[in-house]
Specification:
The protein is mostly helical. It contains ten helices and no strands. Helix 1 runs antiparallel to helix 6, helix 5 packs across helix 9 and helix 6 crosses helix 7.
Length: 180
């Protein structure tokens, strides 16, 4: 299992190095996001923009018909789920350290990610806390409470017993995020 995860993350790393959002995807994002949300989106690193656009496209391909009523909130969350990383942008090497840390020391990473983003723990703090920061940023530009909650919870385990609409949307976001 660790080998599969490492292989997936290695592919993700190479894709991130050469990420270039397509014009068509950027135009689609422009139709989904408000101007204030779009400004947040463009604060993200190009690799994070490309990743978020892939998440959006994955959702558009797989969305269940009964979730269509909340599709706008889900797509906004897809496009902004990593915007919290703009508070303390990570270098490629810091991202590698976080990925390796999660593979080799999964229980320690959570502990390392608490506190303030400084010193050797900085990258782990960003990885652990970016969802909350992203929710704050999204909320500050008038994003709906549902989209904000999806952003805040995008890294939280979804209990299979929770059949609420928000849990279904969150599950869709998480599956698309893992596959992109």
């Amino acid at each position: 299992m660790k080998y599969e995860r490492l292989r997936y993350r290695s592919r993700q790393f190479w894709n991130a190095l050469f990420a270039q959002p397509s014009q068509a995807d950027l135009e689609r994002a422009n139709k989904i996001l408000t101007s204030a949300q779009l400004a947040l989106f463009f604060r993200m690193q190009r690799s994070e923009q490309a990743h978020s656009l892939k998440v959006m496209n994955k959702i558009l391909k797989t969305i269940d018909g009964e979730l269509n009523e909340n599709l706008q909130d889900l797509l906004v969350a897809a496009l902004l789920h990593d915007v919290g990383k703009t508070r303390y942008p990570l270098s490629v090497w810091e991202r590698i350290i976080v990925v390796l840390g999660k593979i080799l020391f999964p229980f320690s990473v959570k502990r390392w990610g608490s506190g303030q983003p400084g010193g050797w723990r900085r990258a782990f703090v960003v990885a652990e806390q970016h969802a909350n920061w992203g929710a704050e940023l999204a909320s500050s530009v008038g994003t709906s409470s549902l989209a904000v909650d999806l952003i805040r919870r995008h890294q939280n385990f979804v209990d299979g017993k929770d059949v609420s609409l928000e849990a279904q949307l969150l599950s869709n976001l998480q599956v698309a995020d893992q596959d992109s």
